[in-house]
Amino acid sequence: MSFFLNDCYDRMNKGEVIVAYKGAISADVISNTLSLIESKLEEASEQTGVKKKLYNVLVESLQNLFHHVDAINGEGESETNYGAFVLAKQDQIFRISTGNFIRTDKSKILQEKIDKINSLSKEELKDFYKFVLNNQSFSAKGGGGLGLIDIARKTGNKLDYKFYNYNTDFDFFNLNVFINEKE
Amino acid sequence: MELINIEGTPKTPTVTMNPTSGAIEIKGRSIPENSIEFYKPIVDWLEEYNQGPAAKTVVNVQLEYFNTSSSKCILDVFKKLENLKKNQKEVVINWYYEEDDEDMLEAGEDYESIIKVPFKMIQIVD
User: Fold this and answer.
1) Does residue B1 contact residue B22 with C-beta atoms inside 8 Å?
2) Intervals of chain A under pLDDT 70
3) What CA–CA distances, in Å, run from A56 to B29, B41, B87?
């Protein structure tokens, strides 16, 4: 498992890395990372609009990761919510990469959802967001089903993703979100 | 009815609600992992307030950030305010956004188009 996770992590860990993490995903890890990045951003030279968008999308990406990570058994270990995330910058584009194990039976639904989001125009995304906001109830995990739609809307970029098959029960889902440094 | 006064944290907004004056304010950031827990007392309060509201309710919403988990709860808050209007009460919603924050302006417009109460969009200039 650790070899597989390291391999996925290496693929994510590219560019000028600002923050990178691999391990158990807990509410504390997410909170601490968000405050760390927020203070780093305060010193950064980017326009405030860009910083704000970046932070907002980062909150959504990391909370999405936290809500959707599926626990997996490590070798001789107990069940853990293993995952990874990287915030990096390359050629004036920020990249938020998140990775988590997901049960293979959920992969197809997720893939269809992302493909649908990627096929929509700016106006269609706005309508889809409002439709889900107004019509869908919360999932048991408290996510509103709005996270990916919101990320696509705010960044204005397509969502990039890959599924790496781990075994018959689990895939590793890697999502890459891009935020342009210049608005 | 009780006056509500919730102090803000790095993840949750400052909320004040006065049943006598009809002044409601939500200010700060709203990015908790589980927002239902945070918003339940606010939505419940509004439910009760609907039974005997002030003649005029003025709502100031000034959010710096909010996550999608909060966005549904915020809609629930607005739906309670929409009820006031349905019952012929005056409701004013002021939606504040910083001048470089297009996303927050759009978020306000989204809510305005869902509930049938006009918003006043107010740009905050530093």
Assistant:
1) no
2) 74-78, 138-144, 183
3) 11, 25, 36
Q: Do B103 and A130 touch (CB under 8 A)?
A: no
Which of B34, B64, B65, B68 should we substitute to test contact with A (largest number of A Cβ atoms within 10 Å)?
A: B68
Could you say which of 2.60.40.2080, 3.40.50.720, 3.30.200.20, 3.30.565.10 is the CATH number of the domain covering A2-180?
Answer: 3.30.565.10
Domain of B47: which CATH number? 3.30.750
Query: Is the overall model pTM greater than 0.95, yes or no?
Result: no
DSSP A15-26: SEEEEEEEEE--
pLDDT digits (tens, 9 = 90+) for A151-171: 999 999 999 999 999 999 999
- Domain residues of chain A, as ranges? 2-180
Number of domains in chain B: 1
Distance of alpha carbon A48 from alpha carbon A38, whole angstroms = 12
Q: Domain span at residue B17?
A: 4-124
Any B CB within 8 A of A168 CB: no
B103: closest CA of chain A, how far (Å): 7
- CB contacts, 8 Å: A129 with chain B: 110
Q: pLDDT tens digit string along B103-125?
A: 999 999 999 999 989 999 999 98
